[in-house]
Specification:
- Chains A, B: It holds the Pfam family FTHFS.
- Chains A, B: It comes from Candida boidinii (Yeast).
- Chains A, B: GO terms for molecular function: ATP binding; formate-tetrahydrofolate ligase activity.
- Chains A, B: Homodimer.
- The structure is a homodimer of 655-residue chains.
- Chain A is an alpha/beta fold and 655 residues long.
- In chain A, 35% of the residues lie in helices and 15% in strands.
- Chain A has 23 helices and 25 strands.
- In chain A, strands 1, 2, 3, 4, 5, 6, 13, 14, 15, 16, 17 and 18 form a twelve-stranded mixed sheet that branches. Chain A has a three-stranded mixed sheet with strand order 20-23-22. A two-stranded parallel ribbon of chain A has the order 7-10.
- In chain A, strand 24 (644-645) and strand 25 form a beta hairpin.
- The longest helix of chain A is centred in the N-terminal third of the chain and has 25 residues, at 144-168.
- Chain A is globular, with a radius of gyration of 26 Å.
- Chain A starts with 17 loop residues before the first helix and ends with a strand.
- The relative contact order of chain A is 0.16.
- The interface between A and B is large, with 90 and 89 residues.
């Protein structure tokens, strides 16, 4: 970036709190960040001084460009403390962008406000590798999560209201109300219902000619209440709403039903925001969302309820990626944040596409010119490689048509020691001795976990760099052990990074390695014949087969057991024609297996699938290998209790 | 406004749809509107191209200025079709600002998205008197309603979670978790709980010295679940959530309880947004919100739950007024939208204060100079004068310290005929003949309703202008009847306005009259000794007395009956020290009385108070004279069914 203005770091030791660091840095105005990033003045829509939405026009304007390099950041099987994927993503962008002076975008997820006010705190990276201002990053941003919630809940209200009206009205009354007769005898059909008319094959016929049976089919969705999968959402940790009964007011005539709320980021609408490739694509995906089945077993969609246009209108601005900046002033796209527990846990395809074009090069350059000019897009996938990376590749890349040039696997000495037999690590509790002193043997044993993730990643034909996220108690010898194990497992390199303590400068070595790898300059890459491929084909394989491939090839399972509920769903979805979708498996992130207690590299276990659910609009089935809580709770002492707004209007104590 | 750029109207006949008119006008960039309005470059935070937040710094910067003229727009007892208050507010601002070239701000409420996607449609004015872009006006704007919902619901989650944790933990365990012991034996007390410590008088004592009883008092709120008044909210018409049972998930250990959702604009947090006079004031009001009583009858507040700082953080940006523009490019503040059914139904004090400063004049001018330079702030109150105006004056003006210079009462021939005995007017049904042809007798009889509103308004010592909102079937003779009746009842003038069809030009006469009146230039104003006063004092009068004054002096009641539930609440609130607050009465807007069927000027009726509730943070009690639905439902055919996003990304069919 030619006229890039770096924000200087004033490194202190010990490293102050994330919040202090963020507040002590004065960000550039977002229009400046946009300009430096190659976004034109009329393509950026500022939301306050430090956030902005970028119009999708950018992608069209630059469609001739060859994409920049696409770097995926994933990790090993983590501890509950987290091993620093977000921090590495941001630190690496600072290193490439601010330290090395090349174009670099960090693409991250928008955090939910539930955890922000719960125990966890923010998700803007940490130390000297952060997205700023961190308080704005952790609240509202430009309102996308709110839009997702509105869209999700309008659909829920539309569904329940329709059931209510169908229960109290004849076909004739429904017909009269939904499509009132005009003076000339024609019918005023709302545009939202035209898709249903087409689906029923009635679009070729004048509504005046419809038979009573056809009218009935059109006006009566005949929802089987037992099959409703659509839940309402709130962007909060509200455990009281996990299980509720609705329709208890006297006005609702006794049509009570049991349901619950999810956290907003668990909504299928959020997954669609992440996976859409255009406004039109989002419109179609929203229409395809299935909310229930009819009494005759047919899927009822958002389109059937006449809601898809309105949901698209609600999401019209949310689809534009949000631009922010790192602590060193390099650009960051913050866009979409689907819940990693049941969804892909990655940021949006559109943000990636946009960043890749902005980091891209004009066609016709020589290889050397291209290497000189090309930029880097560093995008993160939630959880470890084997969950987040697998979903990123098989679901997100399948939808986007993109493929990463490098996969980074973030590892820490601490987490690898857990896999080598170390004592349990708990958030809030002091670390056992083995984690704060050198223990080469334990570490060496634990490296098997890292090696399994490397081998898994290599199955996709992508080069792997291991980023060793340095902590102060690590020894050089320990770092050497990790490097050795990484190379043995097929990683192109393994590099220590100290971005938390030093910002971009601390990740300079890692950045140089990543650039080298992304441009195929490691000797080991020269004669490689590796080619990117998905783990499984979506067509021509049964749901069971696809799940088995993931469980065996990625997790190390010996066998997969489909429990009765899952078997039933497989039958149902296959009958409904939804068996040709990729699969998102929901399981613990704390083990390669389904059992959080199994550290290291468990093998031969029987992997249980309890249930299968569908996100038809987002475009995948999700298989549950565990009971997944889709709305967290608050603790006795909560994050919110520390928050205050001071007399200058600044937020204190968010972290 | 010296360098004001007027957006020209291209008047068509018949008047196209609101949406067509809005789309055909290209708005100015919001930074241009801000600049023309006297907002400095670093005081405006654009949210996209056509909306922006204005920092509260403006009010401080201009604190030396004398306020502009303050014009309140209210109406007569309306029909369900609405009599055009919003349209008059916007049209008058266009007339003063664009036609007459003076400074003029329209201050309006942010509409809820519930009705937007329900039957009602938008609320941006109409015809050639609109806020634009109307689709942005009717959705999200800058996210304030979403912030209100988040703040409201975080408090709800905090309350229910606290009850859960208190039910499962001993005092000692709660103490240990809420305020963990540090290594040195001191306690880490979250900042959010310090207010409770002070309230209990424990702040003078080292926590180490607290007795078991004191610890118990501090950690155990001991909420009486039967007394919980705090509900969750959604900005949607979702009737299924009116009555629900929560805590039914197995994790919640059987602590089920009945509750319900309100529409977000009915939240007390929204009323606080409207009534706060600064960030600090908002912080204090949020803390004072009462959510329940303890088992010993003491009010439990947001502050007791340690939530008030976090709620303020969530609302930190929402408190800044939003700037938009009219169809003719004059500035509009859109800020807060408390539900008129149970709250004040007026936009925010801060938006009014800010506009009054921006429309104000430097001190030391001669009377003539001041008249020449001063600007006008036109603000609207929901419902008719006798409800919305009364609340505006007795609640909003009491909190703000402001008083209006002119009260406008909007009247239509149509609505006055209803009060003169005309047949019922229903939305969607054709108008009976008396409304589309001249009927002077019926109209003359109906003018009594207008006269009662005028007389009511005059009780506050403010001059009244009647705005006759012209419709095409009106006759000149009918307009003369209204004028005559208005003057007879004490109005300073009554002026026909045709802004819907002609924009600002159509409201030119009205604008001239309002300016003349606001500057005291009508002959009738010359020797006036009228002085602004509230209808009642809040201190030194019982709750019953205050309600009786409103019911008798404003509504025309002969007597007030307090039903048992209301009597009990009066006792409770009086005991809790909440009897010195003003009162917001919730009743039908379709009659001066509590009975929608009583048109004209009913007198001598007994006015029933069924129940009384409290919005302690907002600063009023509200007395229910009717069953008020606090979350609407959706119809069989809904607004959302007409909405689509076209290939250019534009929203179609919102209206």
């Amino acid at each position: 970036m030619s006229d890039f203005k770096r924000l200087k770091l004033n490194l202190e030791k010990p490293v102050p709190s994330d919040f202090q660091i963020s507040r002590n840095q004065k960000p550039k105005h977002i229009t400046e960040v946009a300009k430096e990033s190659g976004v034109l003045e009329d393509e950026i829509e500022p939301y306050g001084a430090y956030k902005g939405k970028v119009k999708l026009d950018v992608i069209d304007r630059l469609h001739n460009r060859k994409d920049g390099r696409y770097i995926l950041v994933t990790g090993i099987t983590p501890t509950p403390l987290g091993e620093g994927k977000s921090t590495t993503t941001v630190g690496l962008a600072q290193a490439i962008g601010a330290t090395l002076g090349k174009t670099a975008f960090a693409n991250v997820r928008q955090p939910s406000m539930g955890p922000t006010f719960g125990v966890k705190g923010g998700a803007a990276g940490g130390g000297y590798s952060q997205v700023i201002p961190m308080d704005e990053f952790n609240m509202h941003i430009t309102g996308d999560i709110h839009a997702v919630g509105m869209a999700n809940n309008l659909l829920a209200a539309a569904l329940d209201t329709r059931i209510f009206h169908e229960s109290t009205q004849t076909d004739k009354a429904l017909w009269k109300r939904l499509c009132p007769e005009r003076k000339d005898g024609s019918r005023d059909i709302p545009i939202g219902l035209t898709a249903r008319i087409k689906k029923l094959g009635l679009d070729t016929k004048d509504p005046k000619e419809w038979t009573e049976e056809e009218i009935s089919k059109f006006v009566r969705l005949d929802v089987d209440q037992e099959t409703i999968t659509w839940k309402r959402v709130l962007d909060l940790n509200d455990r009281s709403l996990r299980g509720i009964t609705i329709n208890e007011a006297p006005t609702e005539k006794g049509l009570t039903r049991k349901t619950g709320f999810d956290i907003t980021v668990a909504s299928e609408v959020m997954a669609i925001l992440a996976l859409s490739t255009s406004l039109k694509d989002m419109r179609e995906r929203l229409g395809k969302m299935v909310v229930a089945s009819s009494k005759s077993g047919e899927p009822i969609t958002c389109e059937d309820l006449g809601c898809a246009g309105a949901l698209t209108a609600i999401m019209k601005d949310a689809i534009k990626p949000n631009l922010m900046q790192t602590l060193e002033g390099t650009p960051v796209f913050v866009h979409a944040g689907p819940f990693a527990n049941i969804s892909i846990g990655a940021s949006s395809i559109l943000a990636d596409k946009m960043a890749l074009k902005l980091a891209g090069v004009e066609p016709g350059l020589t290889e050397e010119e291209e290497k000189e000019q090309v930029g880097y897009v560093i995008t993160e996938a939630g959880f470890d490689f084997t969950m987040g990376g697998e979903r990123f590749l098989n679901i997100k890349c399948r939808a986007s048509g993109l493929k990463p040039d490098v996969i980074i696997i973030v590892a820490t000495v601490r987490a690898l020691k857990v896999h080598g037999g170390g004592a349990e690590v708990k958030a809030g509790a002091p670390l056992p001795l083995e984690y704060t002193t050198e223990n080469v043997e334990m570490l060496r044993k634990g490296c098997a976990n890292l090696q399994k993730h490397i081998e898994n990643a290599k199955q996709y034909g992508v080069d792997v760099i291991v980023a060793i996220n340095r902590m102060s108690s690590d020894s050089d010898k320990e770092h050497d052990v990790i490097k050795e194990a990484s190379l043995a497992a097929g990683a192109t390199d393994a590099i220590v990074s100290n971005h938390w303590e030093q910002g971009g400068q601390g990740a300079k070595d890692l950045a140089e390695g990543v650039i080298k790898c992304a441009n195929g300059e490691y000797p080991s890459q020269k004669d490689s014949t590796e080619k990117f491929d998905f783990l499984y084909a979506t067509e021509g394989k049964t749901i069971e087969e696809k799940i088995s491939i993931i469980a065996k090839k990625m997790y190390g399972a010996g066998d997969v057991e489909f429990l009765p509920a899952a078997q039933e769903k497989i039958k149902e979805y296959t009958a409904q024609g939804f068996d040709n979708l990729p699969i998102c498996i929901a399981k613990t992130q704390y083990s390669l297996s389904h059992d959080a207690k199994l550290k290291g590299v468990p093998t031969g276990f029987t992997f249980p699938i309890r249930d299968i659910k569908a996100s038809i609009g987002a475009g995948y089935l999700y298989a549950l290998a565990a009971e997944i809580q889709t709305i967290p709770g608050l603790a006795t002492k909560c994050g919110f209790m520390n928050v205050e707004v001071n007399n200058d209007g600044e937020i204190e104590g968010l972290f």
